[in-house]
Request: fold
Amino acid sequence: MKDDGTIWNWGGNYSSQLGDSTNMDRYEPVKVSGLNGVTAISAGFMHTLALKDDGTVWSWGWNHRGQLGDGTKNYKSGFVTVIEGQRVTNDIAETNTKIKEVAESIKKLPTTTISMFKGWSLEIKGLAFSIGGFFVVAILLIIKKMRNFK
Reply:
């Protein structure tokens, strides 16, 4: 993801996880067209999630276990709104008890212990939280706000 909110991908593309509406592998960076204003991104196993500056969450790629969050198990070569008509905001992120609990624990950790985002799961070294779905994006907002991530 570049500072201007555009996404660039390359690599394997078996399930259109690169967001270019094809299944062709890419050996050089290719701009994901039609999706701008992205503020956070999470790459999973053959799928991708993106949070836009308007609070909407988008996903695309492999969906064998419903990881795109659209209520189906069909892969999508185009973008899918994860939660139709709903936006992720700081208010939602800060008023949910489970999210607040995780956020408070994250405040105490050095940045290096927040190891990776893996699709629908948030993995943080030393914490025994199981966070999924909508919560991952809300946690991204809190981490960004607390740590001034860009």
Observations:
- The two ends are 10 Å apart (CA to CA).
- Residues 90-147 form one domain.
- The chain has two domains: 8-81, 90-147.
- The chain has a mean pLDDT of 65.
